[in-house]
Amino acid sequence: MSEGDPGRPIESDGRVVTELKLFGTLGFPIILTQLSQMGIGVIDSIMAGRVSPTDLAGVALGGNFYFPPVVLLAGIAMAVTPTMSQMHGAGDEARGGAVVRQALWIAVVGGLLAMGLMQFGEAGYRLIGVDEEAIPVATAYLTYMSFGVVPTIAFFVLRYLCEGLSWTTPSMVVAFGGLALKLPLNYLFVYGGLGIPAMGGAGCGLSSAIIMWLQLFAMIFIVRYSRVQRAGAFSEFSLPDFSVIWRLVKLGIPIGITMFFEGTVFSVVTLLIGRLSVEAVAAHQVVFNVGSVTSMIPVALGVAATIRAGYNVGAKDYPGARRSVYVALAAALTFAVLAATVLLLFRDLIASAYTTDMNVLASASALLIILALYQFVDDTQTTAIGCLRGYKDVRIPMGIVLCSHWGIGIPVGSVLGYGLFGLEPWGVSGFWWGLITGFGIATISLNTRLAFLSRSEQRIRRYAEA
Fold this sequence. Notes:
18 helices; mainly alpha; 80% helix
């Protein structure tokens, strides 16, 4: 194994420093990948918004129907990462090819089912009572996007294969390539040109579907002709093996559900805040956007922790896996301190970059103080979930997230925000204190679970063999 391989074991000298370097090597490309993916959404919003508010609303509504099934399927595909990481640590990468081929069957079958469901988007919009004017754009956008579901999930499978082998650069390169293509393709389809009529917001969906296929082809090329070929993903054709598929689904569904409910908790909170005032929603959106940016580092640390912990578990270096966990959590806590400091010192400047409305500015600036505290519970929670995934421990973390976020965070936020049970209403800040409460309980629970699991070799082996 080469000296620069971030999957290598840690030598006796400079273990923590070396581990930190490996986390940087693994995590930095993940951050850039996330930025590229965010950039595609930003381009769609800006360009659709320049056509008309209806087109912008249609793109947003289409995304609301598109992303839930895709997030769930991507979570199932994420089972490939800890599986491959542990095989990599055991020096058994060649056996991973069969696993990847079965994951690709999940991508094809699951993607086709999701694609079929998306064809009923118009009926769903009418059932909900969406504004009639936005339905044609939303339906057309969703239809085009549906043709990209299969390649998107297949891309994730191959991305997670690379990440499981401690190589996060390919997804970054491919994501940047997609971002570079997005702008010209959007101009062509959204505004028209070269004999193609202007399609408005629906054109955003068509350009995205094309990019999804191109990204899949690029990732296939990388897997076929790079060092990843040692896994043998394309060395032969395999029919569905339901025993392997079931193991992946058992591992992946809790990951997908966790990802889904982590994301949708903010959608629910936004809807609840919408009952307060337009200014409250605007201030919340500013803080949520800032929080989305700061969350990139802990998300990257979580993925890197999955890779490193999984590698060491596969190598049966259980103290090494525990060291990876501690380094990841320490890095997350350090970043939380830095992020909180920046938010506290520059909260007025940050808020002013989003709005000039004095009421929204004052409210957003005050909420950024709460966001500074939120960094400590969110960053350590996100990283702890990634660490546990490295051990293939996904069911109990799923239950913790559901109970703490939905069973505690949202109810507490509603009580404080609306002033229920005779309490003085706190407004939008009450909902953020509710989030801190829920995420804080999740952080304590997840890290307690992690400390317990990482010290039990018997449990570690049992999860690894599942």
